[in-house]
Design a protein that fits this description.
The complex is a heterodimer of chains A (about 300) and B (about 375). By secondary structure, chain A is α/β, with parallel strands linked by helices. Chain A contains 12 helices and 8 strands. Helices cover about 35% and strands about 15% of the residues of chain A. Chain A has an 8-stranded mixed beta sheet with strand order 2-1-3-4-6-5-7-8, with helices on both faces. Chain B is α/β, with parallel strands linked by helices and about 375 residues long. Chain B has 12 helices and 16 strands. In chain B, the strands form 4 sheets. Chain B has a 6-stranded mixed beta sheet with strand order 10-12-11-14-15-16, with helices on both faces. In chain B, strands 4-5-7-6-13 form a 5-stranded mixed beta sheet. In chain B, helix 6 crosses helix 8. Chain B is globular, with a radius of gyration of 20 Å. At the A-B interface, strand 2, helix 4 and helix 6 of A face strand 3, helix 3, helix 4 and strand 9 of B. Bound molecules: thiamine diphosphate, iron/sulfur cluster and magnesium ion.
Chain lengths: ~300, ~375
């Protein structure tokens, strides 16, 4: 049996509805993983005071247009490459004034893996007091679905019509190499683990990085209602490892997958972006295996652990 | 008031340091900085200062130096940075943003030629890239002015009737790397001159989004407000001068510096240190009986059109000297001011000192001699100087 909990806890609670971070009237597509993430962030943040920095991406659009805003907390929309530097200025001033405000970057994979990479790396190197959350939909959603360096090999995008050739960057490896206090991947299908990590990252000091696999029905050409299930399949198949890295050296694997071939096959077949690009269960397996060998090495776990989360 | 022997880069940084400390009773000072010749010494100086309730972030690029200033200013702090040339070009996307958010960030520029081909010498083409972005722009002609301008720029930029970023330019090397005695006020005087930074639209506790999407109508309203606020700066600057004079006992330079223009038939119009040379040339030529005057445009944005029209009225010949070139057009300053002259006036553009050429009095004297012979305005001319 798989050892992750059933899909529970994702449904809106009364509090989710009455005091959301991302209010009704936002323009996210139905089934957008970023909407689920904002719901979880709200629950995790509870009474904490937050500020958001959002670079150009779908999250910048979803806030709506002046003078109304779908975001219920102070928010600044930065230029595409500048989320972490703008947050740096915000966080520095909060610190100078002895404020507890948590400054959060909410950035897409384009603003993180690509154009904002230098900015992100610099803020991480200086260990600025920022929580950086990348919602990774593996595509430039805002501009209509072009490839990014987070797009997995084999996914068709509007700029790689026959499927991207190159593999996805190892973002957590990159961030861990900065020796930041905390870096973790988040599966929205694992709510307890998601909330625990968000809470830990909200309270920790210094640079914290969270990588969230964020279903994008529009870009993935998938059913809006299937988003969370797709994340679960990505975890079960081993395609999306759920783990955390403390101080760049202590690796903890949070969810032990079954490496289910069926899950992998389902993951691919439920998204039309993988259709006719030649990507198959078999073609993905070697890289999954390689990455997990690396993770076991880093975490010091020779044998798969049974762990309930 | 102490007197210190310092370079213009250090003068700008010292003024920013005093301004930063002056905000210790409010939300403090935070700045992102990145080096580039010839602005480097300004950021180095700032990195060496102890600023109570202040932080200078050693950024990884100019783009992010301005990003940090944006975050700091959006959180209500006073903010300052410095760059030039390719650094400014690299930063410019966030300069657009800083203006769009209406944040009163002050920036010092040691003007330098844009490259490649690489050239580190003075040219106004870098700061003129920012002409249309909604930043106030000043061009100083000596080191005291650099110091005073930075202080005035904070006061002006943070005035609620203005509320926008300001650029304080000095000619690279010619000013940035030369030293002179500068009158430096005490911290207590600067505290009086600069009230605590109050940015009403800063991110505070309420659900307020800065820089979000807009429809054309909303943007045009914001543009119109920004434009009006920029025009307000003309009047507000005069108030800043008065208050500065009251506190420091010396008046900061006017936005337009006219030199012996009243009875002049011929004018030299320029920006930055070219104006200092022009004033010497005016003296020399007046000794020979020629009626020449000089106008130095210190405040380039907002453009003081009415005042320039008044100064230009009745003048027969106007030489506009540009230390810049808008390729395919001519000098930027010439393009801006030629329309303020009388229709019958001969307005001739000379692009001198482009890319750092050393413009000396004899160059200007030769150009004026040529202008005296002209019977109509010619095409803009690039004048090579050694
Ligand atoms: C400097 C700059 N270049 C390009 C763009 C256009 N642009 C806006 S958002 C975007 C892609 C965003 O992708 P990602 O960060 O993955 O976020 P998503 O849209 O997928 O949520 C691009 C290319 C821009 N706004 N600024
Ligand atoms: S395009 Fe994708 S990421 Fe963007 S709002 Fe739609 S579902 Fe969300
Ligand atoms: Mg994306």
């Amino acid at each position: 049996m798989m050892n992750e909990p059933a899909l529970n806890g994702m449904a809106h609670t009364e509090q989710d509805r009455s005091e959301p971070l991302l209010r009704a009237g936002n323009s996210n597509c139905g089934g957008c993983g970023m909407s689920n993430l904002m719901q979880m962030l709200r629950r995790a943040a509870a009474e904490r005071e937050l500020k958001l920095v959002i670079p150009a991406c779908c999250a910048a659009v979803t806030g709506g247009s002046f003078p109304e805003s779908a975001f219920s907390i102070p928010t600044i929309m930065s230029t595409f490459a500048s989320a972490a530097s703008v947050a740096n200025g915000d966080a520095s001033v909060a610190q100078l004034n002895g404020e507890e405000t948590r400054v959060i970057c909410l950035a897409g994979d384009g603003g993180t893996y690509d154009i904002g990479m230098g900015t992100l790396s610099a803020a991480a190197e200086r260990n600025e007091d920022i929580l950086y959350i990348c919602y990774d939909n593996e595509i430039y959603g805002n501009t209509g679905g072009q490839r990014s360096s987070a797009t997995p090999a084999g996914a068709a995008t509007t700029s790689t019509l026959h499927g991207k050739q190159e593999t996805k960057k190892d973002i957590l490896g990159i961030m861990a190499a900065h020796r930041i206090p905390y870096a973790a991947s988040i599966s929205l299908a694992h709510i307890d683990d998601t909330l625990r990590k968000l809470q830990f990252a909200l309270d920790a000091r210094g640079f914290r990085f969270l990588h969230v696999l964020s279903p994008c029905p529009t870009g993935w050409k998938s059913e809006p209602a299937m988003g969370i299930e797709l994340v679960r399949l990505a975890v079960r198949s081993g395609l999306f490892p759920v783990f955390e890295v403390f101080d760049g050296e202590r690796y903890v694997l949070n969810v032990e997958p079954e490496f289910s071939g069926e899950a992998l096959m389902m993951y691919l077949s439920l998204q039309r972006r993988f259709r006719n690009t030649g990507v198959t269960e078999e073609s993905l397996r070697p890289s999954i295996e390689r990455y997990w060998n690396y993770l076991r090495l880093m975490s010091g776990r020779i044998v798969p652990a049974r762990r309930n989360v | 008031m102490a007197v210190e022997l310092i370079s213009a880069n250090h003068a700008a940084a010292l003024a920013a340091t005093l301004a930063g400390r002056a905000n210790r009773t409010a939300r403090g000072f935070c700045s992102g900085v990145y080096p580039i010749t010839p602005s480097t010494e300004c950021m180095e100086y700032l990195c060496g200062q102890e600023i109570e309730k202040g932080k200078v972030v050693r950024a990884d690029s100019e783009h992010n130096a301005m990003g940090i200033c944006i975050g700091a200013s959006a959180s209500g702090a006073r903010s300052f940075t410095t760059t030039c040339s390719n650094g400014l070009a690299y930063m410019i996307e966030n300069c657009v943003a800083a203006a769009g958010y209406r944040l009163p960030i002050v920036m010092s520029i040691a003007n330098r030629t844009l490259g490649p081909p690489w050239n580190i010498w003075a040219d106004h083409g870098d700061s003129l890239l920012m002409r249309d972005l909604g930043w106030l722009q000043f061009y100083s002609a000596d080191i005291q002015q650099v110091f005073d301008t930075v202080l005035c720029a904070f006061r002006l930029a943070e005035d609620p009737r203005v509320m926008m970023p300001a650029l304080c330019c000095m000619d690279g090397f010619i000013l940035s790397h030369t030293m002179a005695q500068v009158e430096v006020p005490s911290q207590e005087q600067v505290d009086r001159c600069l009230p605590p930074t109050d940015i009403p639209h800063r991110l505070d506790k309420s659900a307020h989004t800065l820089g979000q999407m807009e429809t054309p109508h909303q943007s045009v309203v914001h543009r119109a407000q920004h434009h009006q606020a920029m025009l307000n700066a003309r009047q507000v600057y005069a108030e800043v001068q008065d208050s500065f004079e009251e506190i420091f006992g010396r008046r900061p330079a006017d936005p337009l510096v006219s030199y012996r223009t009243e009875d002049a038939e011929t004018l030299i119009v320029s920006m930055g240190t070219l104006g200092v040379t022009a004033e010497r040339v005016v003296d020399l030529l007046r000794e020979q009986g020629q009626s020449v005057g000089s106008v130095r445009v210190r405040m380039f944005r907002p453009m003081l059109d009415e005042e320039l029209r008044k100064i230009f009225a009745g003048k027969k010949r106007i030489a506009v000297l540009d230390r810049d070139i808008s390729i395919g057009f001519g000098g930027v300053l010439w393009g801006e001011v030629r329309g303020f002259a009388d229709p019958s006036a001969i307005v001739q553009n000379y692009m001198v000192g482009v890319a750092g050429g050393d413009v000396r009095p004899e160059h200007m004297i030769n150009l004026l001699a040529e202008l005296e012979q002209a019977n109509e305005s010619g095409a803009p001319r690039i004048v090579e100087v050694a």
